[in-house]
Amino acid sequence: MIGNDIVDLDRAARDSNWQRKGYLNKLFTASEQYLIASAPDASIMVWLLWSMKESAYKINSRKTGLRSFAPVKLICDSIIINEHNATGSVSYEGEWYYTRSEFNDAYVHTIASCEQEELQAIKIQITGFYSDYKSSMPQCVSHHGNYLALTYL
């Protein structure tokens, strides 16, 4: 089972004021907030952590059938960041999900899996949003702003 999340950074900058008082407390743990505060680009770190949580949540909600999104309970851990990509894990109520992310000036995209080895097998297609993607039978779909991310296993 895989998860997938994409954040259009232009759209996020227009729609979300993550710097307002109390916003980060609702979404991120104290250690995640420290990562944000100490990051060279705090905005990228916010959306990286968010997309990690969201991609793991998509797996968990499909596994359990529950739709209770509590971002602060999804805990990002073991994050390794390189120039334009990152790996890490997300824990939620005793379950672990492994993530791989890509980011650039336009978007942040994360895939997640229950199996770390499975991340390498996931095929990703990121395009502008269009409506005729269902015939390609993606395992997970994410869209935000101008971007559509499809994942296949």
UniProtKB/TrEMBL annotation:
Molecular functions per Gene Ontology: holo-[acyl-carrier-protein] synthase activity; magnesium ion binding
User: According to the entry, what is the taxonomic lineage of the organism?
Assistant: Bacteria, Pseudomonadati, Bacteroidota, Sphingobacteriia, Sphingobacteriales
Q: Which InterPro entries match?
A: 4-PPantetheinyl_Trfase_dom, 4-PPantetheinyl_Trfase_dom_sf
Q: Where is the 4'-phosphopantetheinyl transferase domain?
A: 2-111
Q: Which domain of life is it from?
A: Bacteria
Q: Does the keyword Nucleotidyltransferase apply?
A: no
Q: Which UniProt keywords apply?
A: Transferase
Q: Which Gene3D superfamilies does the annotation name? A: 4'-phosphopantetheinyl transferase domain
Entry protein name? 4-phosphopantetheinyl transferase family protein
Which Pfam families does the entry link to?
A: ACPS (PF01648)
Query: Secretion signal: which residues?
Result: none
